Amino acid sequence: MRMSFLLSTILPTSAALIALCLPVGRVRAAAASADPAGDPLGDVVISATRLPTPESQVANSVTVVTAADIAARQAQTLPDVLKDVPGLNVVQTGGAGGQAYVFMRGANSNHVKVLVDGIDMADPSSPTASFDFGQFLTPDIDRVEVLRGPQSGLYGSDAIGGVINIITKGGNGPTAFTAGIEGGSFDTLNQNGGISGSTGPLHYRATIAHFHAGATPVTPENLLAPGEARNDDSYDNVTASAKLGYDVTDTIDLGLVGRYTRTDLRFTGDDYSTYPATPAAQRSAGATLQYYTRGTGHLSLLDGRLNQTLGVAYGSTKSSSATPGSANSYYAGDRVKVDWQADYVVTSGQTVVVGAEHQRDAIRQPITAGTDLNSGYAELQSTLFENFHDTVSLRYDDSGRFGGKATYRVAPTYFIAATGTKLKASVGSGFKTPTLSEMYQDYPAYGFFGNPDLKPETSVGYDAGFEQALPGGRLRLGVTYFHNDIRNLITNNASNTSYANIGRARTKGVESFVAYQPTDTVTLRLDYTYTQAYDAILNQELLRRPRHKGNADVRWQATDRLSLDVSLLAVGSFIDGNRDFSIPRLKAPGYVTMDIAASYDLNEMFTVYGRITNLMDRDYQNPTGFLRPGRGVFGGVRARL
């Protein structure tokens, strides 16, 4: 790491922030030490500022999904967790194990930063360096924070659309064991087990899960030749994860997290020997092996006013695909990242955050290439006067490949305590670095070559809105308008021989919600998102961005032991290409699905549960050419020992 670069980046930036924002009047307690008790606007969130902050002080739109939410919905994979989140369109090629990507506020699927316990989950070996949400199981998830809007001013590359921050469960208290097993439609059989607890200064949690879906129909019947039988998809996923913590002293603690995933998918590929392509008669095979780990050391000084964390992370992804009649493909890449962050409570209501990062990305197969990225950032959280909070962040990322890139974010919010109203706004910039594949991967047989002179994709975005809590706190509602202008998008050049920074896109829309708790045992939530996303050069809608999306969820704690959850998801029509893109643009129909889940506590140790997904057995595709699962019936048991 080039320490001179890091210091020259961080110190002037943080000094500028302090000079701009410190001379203020009376302030409240710093966000880092804020007590969320009594906060009428809900949760404490971390991802918006990199520090625990009451939601009423956060200007950005953020959705928090807890472990309790996941259990109530009985979501087994990450796409099932995210599909109802406002502002997101989750696309998955078929059922369990199919590639799954997220379009956030109309931005590209690789414009979302995904973090798991502080580990950047992007895959450097992927042509788009995207994260495949379809391979992530849920048993060890404690919470998911979905932060919408450009966040590169704090998180750097990829955060044009926003950030999805996944925090896994830790260990505390006496040793406890958990186990679960379920079965059901599509030849499903899932098992998981775990141990967690603490002893003295040691905290620990370990989880292992196996997901199997052996017979999921994915190929639409209208694509099959007359009399041709459909081959169902088969998927296996084994995931093991662990989290350790050790309190060396009252002011020093160490942490270690690790995650291992192995997947195998048998799927129907496409036969390109004809035009248009047709589903292949024989199944293809795909396999993925992922390993991620991060170690941290934390030091707290000055009675907790100064906190520093040093982290070292490593991630590796290997994937292969075997298709009858074609050459096998193999991809391998890894990422090493060193990060340091410090936060300092200057005065009550003034917290400065500074940090530095060094990242090394590499592809091992099918080519050998690598790139380095050095970064520094600074943030100031301020309470300028009572109930008026502001967050300002600046960041600089430097690479020898494309030079430096500065980004920013300003996010003020004002909470009117007398009426329970939060007024919020934010403006920020974003960027995404070119992928190693885009720069160096050549396809000479097709006359297509990488472009090492590519520049980062860039964006500027803003949003503004309000959230209102009515007296008693049983009814909350909110509306947010958003707008993003994305430039230098990497796309094919005019001759289709390489990539070039020639694309532009504009996205805008509205996110709204109503949350109502009519009784202590019933909660209701309605969400609606309107999105316009279009190519600013060709003036046409971008693919796979539905204009309309709405969902409703009702949760009822019927008795002390029985709980029920009913959810409805409605997605409007969208522009897409057909399965092999021989038809590059068509209007895909929208769809409505309903899920029902119930659980019953037999005693303090055992819970039985069941769910019906796609209750109305809707036949729908997202993306086009890949069936989503029809009606599914599942049941299982969970144990806590």
Compute the number of structural domains: 1
The CATH class: Mainly Beta
At the third CATH level, what is the topology name? Maltoporin, Chain A
Please count the helical segments: 5
Proportion of β residues?
A: over 45%
Shape: globular
> What is the tally of beta strands?
34
- CATH homology superfamily name: TonB-dependent receptor, beta-barrel domain
What ranges have pLDDT less than 50 throughout 5 or more consecutive residues? 1-40
Radius of gyration: 24 Å
Summarize the main sheet: 22 strands, antiparallel, barrel
Distance between the termini: 47 Å
Average predicted local confidence, pLDDT: 92
The CATH architecture? Beta Barrel
Proportion of helical residues: under 10%
Which structural class should the secondary elements be placed in?
mainly beta
How would you characterize the overall build of this protein?
Belongs to the TonB-dependent receptor family. Residues 185-615 form the TonB-dependent receptor-like beta-barrel domain. GO terms for molecular function: siderophore uptake transmembrane transporter activity. One of its GO terms (cellular component) is cell outer membrane. It is found in: Cell outer membrane. The structure is a single chain. 6% of the residues lie in helices and 57% in strands. Strand 10 (176-184) and strand 11 form a beta hairpin. It has one domain (3-36, 43-462): Maltoporin, Chain A. The protein is mainly beta and 641 residues long. Residues 1-40 have low confidence and may be disordered. It has a 22-stranded antiparallel barrel. A 5-stranded mixed β-sheet has the order 3-8-9-6-7. Strands 1-2 form a two-stranded antiparallel ribbon. The longest helix has 19 residues, at 3-21. The chain is globular, with a radius of gyration of 24 Å.
